[in-house]
Write a structure and sequence with these properties.
globular, alpha+beta, six-stranded mixed beta sheet
Length: 949
């Protein structure tokens, strides 16, 4: 669990919470009480109904503007499921003074980021930019509220994009239909949330341009909106700007009520739904119950109940279903909105478990929590976990704005986020049992099974008749149009940037010689310790790919003195989260905890690093889970394309070894022990500490934890030439029948992080495919609406990395996306860039890096990555200077050297019948590998003849 504090500018008042759970082997000793400071804000309402909430924070150089409309999926008109989500896309795009996607340029080009999202109760639009652009962002929100242009251009493009989003989120992943279609259909009987919020292809196709205009006039206006501004600004100046840009916008002329008619009837007869869908690798069994509105007095206890059942490795469902080997994953949660909700439990089965046995085991967990009180220790630990999550979201001004906004739109109360924590703190053992008895009644349950089969919605249809939902009046008046370029109002320019002191880091050495980098990134009582060791997946022996990852996975499952459950219980009781991961070049270990508990949590980390024993039973269980999880990964086109691309571009070199169903079984417990002893070595370790600790306190803490760690073992030898020689380019198609979408990856071998030309190629890649202003996004999504997004990425490795372009699209257009990729590869080397374009891309990179350095996790991640590649930590603060030295000619040179289409490999995973002929015309020699003949352990990716079925 991660616990994060607040930045400056929050109220001193705090919602106190009982100390961490320590009974029932849930911890090793007393720990200080956790508390959550309330969110401090200023609120006022304009005459037109616009509510304004200001959350000042002078510790950041940024400001977040977010506009929250109380319009969500529950307002989708009859026959138009997914319409509020579609309109979220539409309203982001253009106004009378902003041509299509100008909003992206106004944010990314100054070093900011923007997005929008849609849910049951709301739609929001938000940007985080350097604080000097506050007025610019307020102007854009005025434009989108008062002068949106909804024409055929934006409507048709965004509808196509949303359909690709649906394919990517729902139809392509093996469990997408379960999450988006089956659950919604069977959680509600009469409320409009019974329809999927993302909609259906059929309903999206039936929508019209007039529908969009009518929807906007019915629901969108200052009287349905809340503007939340959080970050570095002067309050009185904000009041002036808000009056200037919003006070003259009229309320809706013909308002439609936001209230939803109907109330869910109590379910009194249980039923079972047996749903099927293509390419489901592991069956699922689960249960659904109806839940009350988020404002119901039982809401807090229901949330605590769900946390006890399934959050963390110390939860009841994890113990009963995952640790027993019956399930790969077990979860329980609730979704409560303004008008109602649902509670769900789900279990992804292991291949050896039966649906009947898993359902019986799940029922026993539910029956127990209904018939027996939970322990006081479980209750305290659950509350800590919930408070920790709230603290995490409140670490930054943006996080506080989002927590306040989400609670506000479902309750109408700006204090709802704090009241929620007060209610959770007051939950008793009796409350938990009472809500379990009230809301998890056997007669109110829908049992769901989800297995591989045909995509047949009739298998999961709710027997209750689908209600007829309300519609909106036709649009009136004439539609607006984008003004000619010379007649548009210009956005206001930036003001003076506020002066904010950047965190300074201190380099020192522990008593045993381990280098330490520390930085006090804030005054928040939360900190992160990160250790980085050379020796990642590139050290995996041939035939045992996945070894380093497996060692990271099983590391916290036992030592000579602590069991897996004791480790999990102790850390969760301390409000701490421990994470192990392995990259190609090394392993990272990060511990985040409240500063008061960091020493005690750190003692557990030290024990794991020095004494992880990888118990046989735990190792076998986790290996089985990894294999089961891999089976799901292989059925996801996007994830599988990444694995295949690594094999294609590195062949049998160490960087090309990927975990496979053949390599994981070959790994032994002794391999894990040997990996720990060889590579988790104090002689090669580097430590980064940041957060709410002074450099002196960080040094004292690190010395106390790690300063006496020594080893007589020899230092590990670095892997020579992990990238290997670049293999010849290949075009590989993995033919996956019935794939919901095709994943397209085009890539080239690039250079190492230490190469002097790295910054040149990094900037070239940013022009090509970073963010919404990258050329790939512009060409694939903005102009052609072929994908939900198209991006490129340059890896950071000690040896040659890769530069890859990626997108997912409907099967019929996979070859078209590939063609666009190669066109843009060639264009970057053929056309000259102007300095202004390059400077905007520099600001985009610099802004993203600066935002990441504001948190302890982000700071540690950036610095640890540099240390792993042998670079100085100061490099993190020298990016702007290095990027400034890159010229347009440098970018073109890099593109010519690395991005020649004839040197690129192409991987497509999808239903090949829809694109193979056109792809062959594009690429000539195409290798088609049927999905059931794919072997990731083989360099040619084909199963041997004897392995066939």
């Amino acid at each position: 669990m991660i616990v994060k504090g607040l930045l400056s500018g929050v109220a001193v008042a705090a919602i106190a919470l009982a100390g961490p759970a320590l009974a029932d082997d849930h911890g090793e000793g007393a720990a200080p009480t956790l508390s959550a400071p309330k969110i401090e804000y200023t609120r006022w309402v304009l005459g037109n109904g616009l509510q304004v909430i200001a959350i000042p924070d002078s510790s950041t150089a940024n400001v977040t503007t977010s506009l929250w409309y109380e319009v969500g999926a529950k307002h989708d008109p009859e026959g138009r499921s997914g319409f509020s989500h579609l309109f979220e896309h539409i309203l982001s795009r253009q106004t009378v003074n902003m041509p299509y996607n100008m909003i992206n340029k106004l944010t990314e080009d100054v070093g900011g980021v923007r997005n929008a999202s849609n849910w049951v109760d709301r739609t929001n639009y938000y940007e985080t930019v350097p604080a000097e652009y506050l007025e610019t962002m307020l102007w854009t929100h005025r434009e989108r509220m008062a002068f949106p242009v909804v024409d055929s251009l934006v409507f048709e493009r965004e509808r196509s994009v949303v359909k690709e989003e649906l394919r990517q989120r729902v139809l392509a992943p093996p469990y997408g239909r379960l999450q988006r279609f089956v659950t919604a259909e069977n959680s509600f009987d009469v409320l409009p949330m019974r329809r999927p919020g993302i909609g259906s292809i059929e309903d999206l196709d039936s929508a019209t341009l007039d529908d969009a205009r009518a929807f906007h006039q019915a629901y969108y206006g200052p009287d349905t909106a809340t503007l939340i501004v959080a970050g570095n600004f002067e309050l009185e100046n904000l009041r002036t700007l808000v009056d200037r840009y919003f006070s003259d916008i009229p309320r809706r002329a013909n308002p439609v009520s936001l209230e939803i008619e109907g109330e869910e009837p109590v379910r009194t007869v249980p039923r079972t739904v047996n749903a099927t869908a293509p390419n489901v690798p592991l069956p699922v069994v689960g249960s659904l119950w109806k839940a009350p509105a988020v404002t119901h007095p039982d809401a807090a206890a229901i949330e605590v109940l769900g946390t006890i059942l399934s959050r963390g490795d110390n939860s009841r469902m994890h113990e009963a279903l995952v640790r027993s080997g019956m399930a790969v994953n077990a979860s329980h949660g609730e979704q409560m909105s303004e008008d109602g909700g649902f509670i769900s439990s789900s279990v992804v089965l292991s291949p050896t478990a039966s649906l009947t046995d898993a359902q019986a085991a799940l029922d026993r967990v539910i029956d127990r929590v209904r018939s027996e009180p939970v322990s006081a220790a479980e209750l305290r630990e659950a509350k800590n976990e919930i408070f920790a999550s709230a603290l995490s979201s409140r670490q930054t001004a943006q996080g506080r704005a989002f927590e306040l906004g989400e609670a506000l739109v479902s309750t109408g109360d700006p204090d709802a986020a704090d009241k929620r924590l007060e209610a959770i703190a007051a939950v008793t053992v009796a409350d938990v049992q009472r809500v379990a008895q009230t809301w998890l009644r056997p007669e109110g349950k829908v049992t769901i099974t989800y297995t591989s089969g045909e995509d047949d919605p009739s298998t999961y249809a709710n027997p209750a008749p689908m209600p007829t939902f309300s519609s909106v009046p036709p649009a009136s008046g004439e539609p607006l149009a984008v003004r000619p370029e010379g007649e548009r109002d210009a956005p206001p320019p930036p003001t003076a940037a506020p002066k904010v002191e950047r965190a300074q880091f201190v380099e020192s050495t522990l008593a045993n010689g381990i280098p330490l980098v520390s930085a006090q990134t804030s005054n928040v009582p939360i900190a992160t310790i990160t250790l980085v060791f050379p020796g990642g997946s590139a050290t995996d022996p041939a035939g045992k790919a996945g070894l380093a990852d497996m060692a990271a996975t099983v590391a916290d499952k036992g030592t000579a003195t602590r069991s897996a459950t004791e480790i999990a219980a102790t850390l969760e009781s301390l409000g701490a989260r421990l994470g192990f991961s392995a990259s190609e070049d090394g392993s990272f270990v990060s511990l985040t905890a409240p500063t008061a508990n960091l020493k005690q949590a750190g003692a557990v980390l030290v024990d794991i690093l020095q004494n992880a024993s990888f118990p046989d039973e735990e190792f076998e269980r986790e290996r089985k889970r990894v294999l089961d999880g891999l089976s799901a990964t292989l059925k996801n086109p996007g994830a599988l394309a990444d694995l295949v691309a690594a094999r294609v571009m590195y062949a049998d070199a160490p960087y090309g070894r990927v975990a496979s169903p053949a390599s994981i079984p070959a790994i032994t417990r002794d391999d894990l022990v040997a990996h720990r002893e060889a590579y988790w070595h104090p002689g090669t370790a580097r430590i980064v500490v940041s957060g709410g600790l002074s450099a002196e306190d960080a040094k004292s803490l690190a010395d106390g934890l790690f300063g006496s760690w020594t080893s007589s073992r020899p230092l590990p030898v670095a892997i020579a030439d992990p990238a290997g020689a670049a293999p010849a380019p290949r075009t590989v198609v993995i033919d996956m029948p019935n794939a919901g979408q095709a994943a397209v990856v085009a890539g080239v071998r690039a250079l190492s992080r230490n190469n002097p030309d790295f910054y040149k190629l990094w900037l070239a890649n940013t022009v090509l495919g970073s963010g919404s202003n990258g050329r790939l996004f512009e060409e694939v999504r903005t102009k052609r609406a072929l994908s939900y997004g198209a991006y490129s990425a340059l890896g950071t490795r000690a040896d040659d990395a890769t530069l890859t372009a990626q997108a997912q699209t409907k099967n019929e257009t996979a070859d078209e996306v590939a063609a666009v990729f190669f066109e843009q590869f060639a264009r970057l080397g053929a056309e000259s860039l102007d300095e202004d374009t390059l400077q905007k891309r520099r600001l985009f990179l610099g802004g993203a890096l600066a935002r990441s350095l504001e948190t302890s996790n982000g700071f540690n991640g950036q610095v640890a990555s540099l240390l792993l590649r042998g670079l100085a930590p100061q490099e993190a603060f020298g990016v702007a200077e290095r990027l400034a030295q890159v010229s347009p000619a440098d970018v073109a040179q890099m593109a010519q050297a690395y991005l020649a289409p004839e040197n690129a490999s192409l991987v497509i995973v999808g239903d090949a019948q829809y694109f193979i002929d056109d792809l062959k015309a594009l690429r000539g020699d195409v290798e088609v590998i049927p999905f059931d003949q794919l072997d990731l352990a083989s360099v040619d990716l084909h199963k041997a003849a004897s392995d066939g079925e």
